[in-house]
Amino acid sequence: MFILVLVVVIVILALLLFAGLAKYLKKKDAQKTEQDVLKFIANHPERVSMHVIENGEETVSYGADRKRPLASVVKLVIAAEFAEQAAEGRILAEERVHLRNLERFYIPGTDGNAHPEWLESLGDISAAEATVPLLEVARGMIRFSSNANTEYLLEKLGLDRVNRRIGLLGFKEHDPVYPISSSMLSYSYLMETRELTHRQVLDVMKRFSYEDMADLAKDIFVRISQDSAWLQRLSRTRSPLAAQRIWSAKLPGATAREYANLLRSIQRGDLLSPRAAEIMLDLLGRPQSPDSPFQALGGKGGSTLAILNQALYCEDASGNQTQLAVFIHDPDGMELLWLNHKLDLFLREYLTNRSFKEEVNRTLK
Questions:
Q1: Is 356 exposed, middle or buried (0-12, 13-18, 19+ CB in 10 A)?
Q2: How many Cβ atoms from other residues are within 10 Å of residue 307's Cβ?
Q3: Between the CA of residue 103 and those of 64, 125, 137, 150, 231, what are the distances in Å?
Q4: Closest C-alpha among 174, 198, 153 to residue 68
Q5: What is the reported pTM?
Q6: Which of 129, 149, 151, 311 is the most exposed place for a label (fewest CB within 10 A)?
Q7: pLDDT tens digits, one per residue of 106-122
Q8: Rounded to 5 degrees, what angle do the CA atoms 231, 233, 238 make?
Q9: How far apart are CA 41 and CA 63, in angstroms?
Q10: Quick one: which of 85, 304, 20 has its CA closest to 180?
Q11: CA 77 – CA 41 distance, rounded (Å)
């Protein structure tokens, strides 16, 4: 009896200690600033890439040619293909799409509530029979980062055409795109179809080549798009953290340099056709308030348990144009617990505070 009481007391003390430590670390992380982000970037070249172009001149090129997983930043390529097909008349931007066609690809609890938030932004509609323009589906993919919308657009546009667009956009180091939302179900799919244990699934995923992961994602994509029972079946098993880390490392990758250059070409309107460029800027652009320091600002972020990326362009009141890409791959994800809350601060200060910008440029030169 005494031993049991002692064990209970030790457990309670351990929990209180853990709770206190967590509260302390959370408070400490909240006090971090843009300087802490800069220090992290400078001290971890193996985890971070940053490339900046200002008025056509490269001002930062820090690990910019190292390929890193993109997460949702890859949706820029899908948006570019959408814009060109719409401009060519291959698809109709005003075509009505039933929301139930998008629901075929919605995996609850995997997108940070992006898809439900997009649906809420549409107003009071009946999800059962409601339709939205195809252009609105693309907006949901970019502005809200809806994964369901992304998978639907891959089906609509054609995966082969999206991958052909990568070459047309001038990428040299870009992996072929595969259905990344479907690939989130890799863990449960392997358990279901190969009858493997948790440890065996992790071992299989670790051994996967990029091509293996892409092929598996395409297989899952076909199954869930044709039979909703597959999505319901696979969604019952949540992917554990270890599997998410492995999956993150095997997502489509590219370099910060190439994505910053892509945004420069899009902002200048010299890569896509004129009409496609208009559509693309409409998709990427973020509305600015009257007191904003920018007359134009747009881009796309992407994150997972182990990835935190941002690719953006802007133009200030004086007409100065900047394009940048920051790609962070932190394999265990521990540093992202605070970076997720501070990267936007770092970027805002970099774009609006000249002295801080000069400090960053010097530090990362």
A1: middle
A2: 24
A3: 37, 15, 12, 11, 10
A4: 174
A5: 0.91
A6: 129
A7: 999 888 999 999 999 99
A8: 90
A9: 10
A10: 304
A11: 26
